[in-house]
Amino acid sequence: MLCKLSFKNIQKSFKDYAIYFFTLILGVSIFYIFNALDSQTVMLNISSSTAEIVKLMIELLGAVSIFISFILGFLIIYASRFLIKRRKKEFGIYLTLGMSKRKISMILFMETLFIGMISLAIGLILGILLSQFMSIFVANLFEADLTRFTFIFSKTAMMKTLIYFGLMYLFVMIFNTINITKCKLIDLLHASKKSERIHLKNPVICTIIFLISISFLTYAYYSVTVGVEKLLNFQDILTPIVIGCISTFFLFWSLSGLLVKIVTKMKKIYFHGLNSFTIKQVSSKINTTVFSMTLISLMLFVTICVLSSALSLKNSMTSNLKTLAPVDIELEKRRNLTLKEIENQWNLNQNMIEDSTISLEETLKKFEIDYKNIFEDTILFSVYNDQITLKDTLGTYYEEAKRNYPYLRDTFKEDMIRLSDYNAVAQLFGLSQYTLNENEYILISDYETMIPLRNEALKRNTSLTILGKNYFPKYSECQDGFIHISSNHINMGIFIVPDNAVNDHLIDKEIWLANYKNAKEKEEKQKIEDVILNIEKHPYIKNTSLNITTKIALYEASIGLGALVTFIGLYIGIIFLISSAAILALKELSESSDNIERFQMLRKIGVDEKMIHQALFYQIGIFFLFPLIIAMIHSIFGISFCNYILETIGNEKLLESIIMTSIFLVIIYGGYFLITYICSKNIIKEK
Amino acid sequence: MKILKVLNIEKYYGNKSSLTKALNDICFEVEKGEFVAIMGASGSGKTTLLNCLSTIDKVTSGTILVGDKDITKLKGKELNRFRREELGFIFQDFNLLDTLTAYENIALALTIQAIKGKELEKRIEKISQELNIVDILKKYPYQLSGGQKQRVAAARAMITEPKIILADEPTGALDSKSAKMLLEKLDYLNQERKATILMVTHDAFTASYTNRVIFIKDGKIFHEIYRGESSRKEFFDKIIDVVTLLGGDYSDAL
Hints:
The complex is a heterodimer of chains A (687) and B (254).
Chain A (H helix, E strand, L loop, with lengths): L1 H11 L1 H22 L1 H6 L5 H39 L1 H9 L4 H41 L13 H27 L3 H5 L13 H22 L9 H32 L1 H4 L4 H14 L1 H35 L4 E6 L4 H6 L6 H5 L4 H7 L4 H4 E10 L5 H5 L3 H7 L10 E4 H11 L10 E5 L6 H9 L4 E3 L2 E5 L20 E4 L9 E10 L5 H12 L13 E4 H44 L1 H9 L4 H37 L8 H30 L4
Parallel strand pairs in A: 3-7, 4-6
Antiparallel strand pairs in A: 1-8, 1-9, 2-8, 4-7, 5-6
Helix pairs in contact in A: 1-6, 2-4, 2-6, 2-7, 2-23, 4-7, 4-23, 6-7, 9-10, 10-12, 10-13, 12-25, 13-23, 13-25, 13-26, 23-26, 25-26
Chain B lengths: L1 E13 L4 E13 L3 E5 L6 H8 L7 E6 L2 E2 L5 H11 E4 L11 H10 L5 H14 L15 H13 L5 E5 L7 H17 L4 E5 L2 H4 L4 E6 L2 E7 L5 H15 L8
Parallel strand pairs in B: 3-8, 3-9, 6-7, 7-8
Antiparallel strand pairs in B: 1-2, 1-4, 4-5, 9-10
Helix pairs in contact in B: 3-5, 5-6
C-alpha cells in the first residue's frame, strides 16, 4: 500500500521532480564517466611516462570524487528539502487521516528509494554511453591513436558510483525522516496559507553595508591583481578569498534591498506594465535567499576560473614546446662538485665528486653508448659559476627588491656562459646572436616575474665582478633567450660574458645539446630515445650527476599534465555548474507553485497571458543572472590571479579557453534556465 | 441604456450520465448606473453566473452582451483586453497581491493598460480620497484590516472606469462594521460616479444597499424585487420576506 502510494506520488509530481531527476541523472553519469577514465586509457597505446601521469590522474580524480560526492550530497539534501516543503499540506492530510509519522517517513523513504534507483539506472546507462565518446576525447588529449573502437565498461566505476550514490541517498532518507518527525500538524496544514511579510531593509543601512562590502571586495580584488606579488604563502592567499566570500554575502544582502529601493523610486520604469509586480517578486525572494545566492555565485565563480584556467593551461603547454624544446635531447652534468654542495642537495652523493672531475664525454663512454652514431647537430658547452649570487647581481637595487619581494632567494647562484658558446646555442635554437665588448655582459631571461627585477638592476648599470675584473651591462634590459630545453619559460637569468672572462676552474655544469641522427619520423626518434633511456638501468648511473632531458619526455609529460588538469577542471567545473543551476532551478520552481495564486489574480484583473509569461521570464532571468553577473565580475580578477600563478607554465590562448568556458556556461546554465522557465510556465498555466 | 444583457444562458457541468445544470436559462438586463444584487443559497449557481459574466468561465449556451459586444464569443487577447478595460472586479478574498503596497496594487490595474505618469497619480489620488484610503496607500495588504483591503480592491476595480463592476461576496470576509462602511462607499460610487455594480451575495443586509435584487435558486431566476422609493430598512424587510419564501437551507445563511 505504502509502496503504491509513493509510486503514485512520484508519477503525479513528475513535473516537479523532472528537473531534480534530470540533475540526479546528470550527476550520476558524470560521476561514472570520470571514474571510468582508467579503463578508457588502458586500451590506448601510450608510453610508460604517460602511463605514470595517467595513474596520477586516476588517483587525483578519485580524491576529487570524494569532494564531488559531498557537493552532490549537499545538492540532493537541499533539493529534497524543497520538495518536502512543497508537499507539507499533503503530509498534513495524511496525518489527519491518522497515518503515523513513521509511515509518512516510510512513504518518503520509498520515494527516495524509487527515485534513487531509477536515476542511478538511467544515469549509469547514460554514463556508459557517454563514456564511449569520452574515450575519443581521451585519445585526443593524450594524442594517442584510437586504433580500434571497443565498447568499454568499467565495473569498478560502476560499483563506486553505486556505493557513493547509495550512501548519499541513505543520508537523504535519514534527513527526510528527521525533517518529518520535527513537523507539527498545524504547520503542515497551514503551510500554504502563510501570508507574505515584506521586510524592507533600511536603505541607509543597506547603503552603508553596500559601501563597506564594495570596499572590502576592492581590497580583495586589488590584492590578487596589483598586489599579487605580496602574496607569499597560503595564508596570504586565503585572506582575500575569505574577504571575498564574506563581502559577496553582504553585497547580495545590501544590493537586493538597494536595487529594489532604487527601481521603486524610478517611477517611469516601476509603474510600467507588470514591472512593479516582477520587481517585488524578485525582491521578496532575494531577501530570503541571500545565502544560497552567495553560494551559487561563488560556485559559478569557481567554475568559470577552473574551466578557463584548465583549458588555457592545456592549450599552452603543448604550444610552448615547439619553441622551448628545439632539439631532441639535452644532457647535463655537474662539474667541480665540492663536499659542501653535496651536503646541501639531496640528489647528490659522494661518488659524484669523482665523476665531476671527468668530462661529460668521458662519462658517456662509461655507459658504452655510441653517441657519435646517434647524435647530430651537437653542441657541447659549459656553464660557469663564480660564487656570484642574486644579491650581487641586483646591486644597489637589492635592498628595495628584498622589501618588495621578501621571498627572493638571494643566495641563488648566477650562471654564466661564454659568448661564443651562447651564439652557437642560439644558432641551433634559432635565437638572436650577440656581440660583446671587452668589459660588457648581456643578461638573457624569459621568466616574466623575474624580468622586471633584472631590468631594474641593469638600468642601474650594476657591475658583475668575475675574477677581479668588472663587467657592465650592454643592454639596459634582459634579452630573450634560454639554453635549457623545457616545456615552460623558466630561464630566471643567464649572463653572457666575453670568452676570456671565465676559466675552466669556474665550470659548474657541462651541457650537451643534440638532435637524433637521421631521425625524422616519430618511430625513429623513439628508437634512439629507448637506447638513451637504457642509461637509467646502467649501474654507473648512481655515480654521476648526469641529467637527461628529452623532447619526447617533455612532450609526454606536458600532454599528460595538460590532460590531467583539463579532466579535473572539467569534472569540478561541470559538477559545480549543474549543482548551482539545479539549486536555482529548484528554488524557482518551488516558488512558482507558491505563486500560482498571484498569477491567477493577475489573470482575473485581465492581464494578458503574454504579459504574464514575460513577467515570469524576467523574474527567472533576473534570478539566474544576478549571481552570474557577480560571479563574472569576480572571475575577471580570479582568472587574472590564476593567470599569474600559471604564468610559469604558460597560459597562452586564454581568450580561446574563456570562449570555451562561456559555451559550457551558456549550454548548461542557459539550459537549466530554459527548462526552469518552461516548467514554471506549465505550473502557473490556467487550469 | 442597457449595459448588460444576459440572454438564455445555460451552464452544464459533468457528462451525459450525471449532468448538473448550474445555470438553467437565465435572462436579465442591467441598466447603466444600476446597483444590482444577485442572491441565492450556496450551490444556487450565483457564483457560476458571476464567473460567466466575468469571462472567467464559459457558458454552455446563451449570449451575454456587455454594451453591444457578445462576450461569449471573445477569445484570447480580446478576452483579456475586455476584462481589463471594461470590467472591474471585487472579490470576497480581496485578491490583492501581497507583495505590493496598496498604491501599487491600485496602480497595477492602470499600468497593464499602459496608463502612466501624471495621469496615473491623478487617478489614484482621486479614487483614494473617495474611498478614504489615502493614509494607507503605502501599506502592504498584511498591514491592513479586511475592510481596508476591500476598499483598496474597490479602488483598483473602479480606477479603470469600467463599464460594469462585478463584486463577488465583497462583504463575505468582513465584520459588520467594515461591511457597512464598504457598502456605503459602493453606494457612493454608484450615486456619484454613476458606476454600474453587479454584486453577488447571500447576505440580505448587504443586498439591501442595492436598487434591485435578483434571487436565484437551483440555477434559475426565482424572483426579482426593486427597491423603488422605499427606504433601506423597508427594502431589507422585503428581501427577508423573499428569503423566507426561498426557505429551507437558505435560512441558515442569515
